[in-house]
């Protein structure tokens, strides 16, 4: 079972209808699931495609385009709204 170091993620990250194409998000790549423990281990990018069709307890799987143009697939850990990271019950 993978460790979840990001217990402060917002509930919206787990809801498929709250993530839209064009949203900025932080995702955890499959290869990093066991070792990612800090926000620096996550990839930030813009959602270009949703891969999960239903709500998921570990986050919605999406395809993002990072700032360097690389395409990355991973589960959403944090949403970014108005240049601020959304945490569980605080910004």
Describe this structure in words.
- A hairpin with a 2-residue loop joins β4 (71-81) and β5.
- 25% of the residues are buried.
- This protein has strands at residues 24-29, 43-50, 61-66, 71-81, 84-86.
- Strands 1, 2, 3, 4 and 5 form a five-stranded antiparallel β-sheet that branches.
- The protein is an all-beta fold and 91 residues long.
- The mean pLDDT is 89.
In short:
With 91 residues, this protein is mainly β. It has strands spanning 24-29, 43-50, 61-66, 71-81, 84-86.
Please give the radius of gyration in angstroms.
12 Å
Please report the distance between the alpha carbons of the first and last residues: 29 Å
Proportion of residues in extended strands: 35-45%
Overall pLDDT metric: 89
Helix percentage range: under 10%
**SSE order, as H and E?**
EEEEE
Q: What is the tally of beta strands? A: 5
Poorly predicted spans: none
Shape: globular
| Class by SSE composition | mainly beta
Largest sheet: 5 strands, antiparallel
Number of helices: 0
């Amino acid at each position: 079972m993978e460790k979840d170091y990001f217990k402060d993620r917002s509930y919206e990250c787990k809801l498929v209808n709250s993530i839209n194409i064009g949203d900025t998000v932080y995702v955890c790549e499959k290869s990093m699931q066991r070792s990612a423990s800090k926000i620096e281990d996550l990839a930030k990018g813009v959602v270009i495609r949703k891969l999960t069709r239903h709500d998921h307890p570990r986050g919605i799987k999406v395809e993002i385009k990072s700032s360097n143009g690389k395409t990355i697939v991973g589960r959403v850990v944090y949403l970014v709204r108005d240049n601020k990271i959304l945490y569980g019950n605080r910004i």
